[in-house]
Task: inverse folding
């Protein structure tokens, strides 16, 4: 029965790649951005502003694009982003 | 004279935004990716692979798109990426 279920699951599921970009909400101090901007200016570059973000590229299985997007949203809320301080954007494509 | 030079500079320069995505070359161990994949699996998600990268979004002044791209390339080589272990992609747009 377990094998049969796995077969159904693998038959229905498709591969997706979710890109989840997590960055600090504006107004939160970002020492890494500030240090990078400072160093680039010291090196002589005309830099106005630097922002940094972390991007997670996740290969996952789902039965539809909508399901993959919902899963990526849930993963962001549960693990990847901290809703108190972070904002995130999600972009999912079929592989 | 200094004021005049600044005027010329600001007259010629336009605003660009460079997005520089820095990630580890394949084959290099990435504990953050591995831990994230492990945790997502523990939470019950059908995750195949996780990659992480750091994105620098830099607002800068340049006289042309080509100059802004060349500057972003130089900043990546000099500060943002380590050529021994990192790969990077650059995407510059006019603001």
Result:
């Amino acid at each position: 029965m377990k094998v049969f279920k796995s077969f159904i699951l693998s038959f229905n599921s498709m591969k997706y790649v979710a890109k989840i970009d997590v960055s600090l909400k504006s107004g939160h101090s970002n020492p890494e951005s500030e240090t990078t901007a400072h160093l680039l200016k010291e090196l002589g570059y005309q830099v106005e502003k630097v922002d940094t973000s972390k991007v997670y590229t996740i290969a996952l299985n789902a039965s539809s694009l909508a399901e993959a997007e919902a899963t990526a949203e849930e993963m962001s809320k549960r693990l990847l982003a901290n809703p108190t301080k972070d904002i995130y954007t999600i972009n999912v494509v079929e592989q």
About this structure: Chain A touches chain B through 30 residues (CB under 8 Å). The beta strands of chain A are 14-24, 47-62, 86-94.
